[in-house]
Amino acid sequence: ECDLCKEGLEQHCPKMVQTYSTPWPADKGHAETKGHHTNGGYSSDITVNEKFVFKLPDNLELKYAGPLLCAGITTYSPLARHVLGKENTKVGVVGFGGLGHMAVKIAKAMGAEV
Questions:
Q1: Per 3-state DSSP, what percentage of the chain is helix, strand, and coil (rounded to 5)?
Q2: Cα dist from 37 to 17, 24, 30, 46, whole Å
Q3: With 80 as the cut, is the pLDDT of residue 43 above it?
Q4: Is the pTM of this model over 0.70?
Q5: Which of 39, 56, 101, 110 could form a disulfide with 43 if both were Cys (CB 3.0 to 4.6 A apart)?
């Protein structure tokens, strides 16, 4: 485990196996996968650490879950690190496409002035 992993920032670990298009390392088990790439969202099945998985509520339609799991996660992570739980925080968002739109909504929900 590296310092990034110990801090809960596994997504920045240089030994990370990404969900999509990462050559499967020989030292991670599943010897039959050696030499293959991870296929992410194109897979019919995937094995991941339970720490990174959660169940979607039954009443959440997939068409709404997609943006939350893509743009939402992308913008939530830095906002949680730099805004969440801090008072009198101001956030500027450059661009108002998918990411910008989600960043504004999340930052406002965290109490920031946007």
A1: 45, 10, 45
A2: 10, 6, 13, 12
A3: no
A4: no
A5: 39
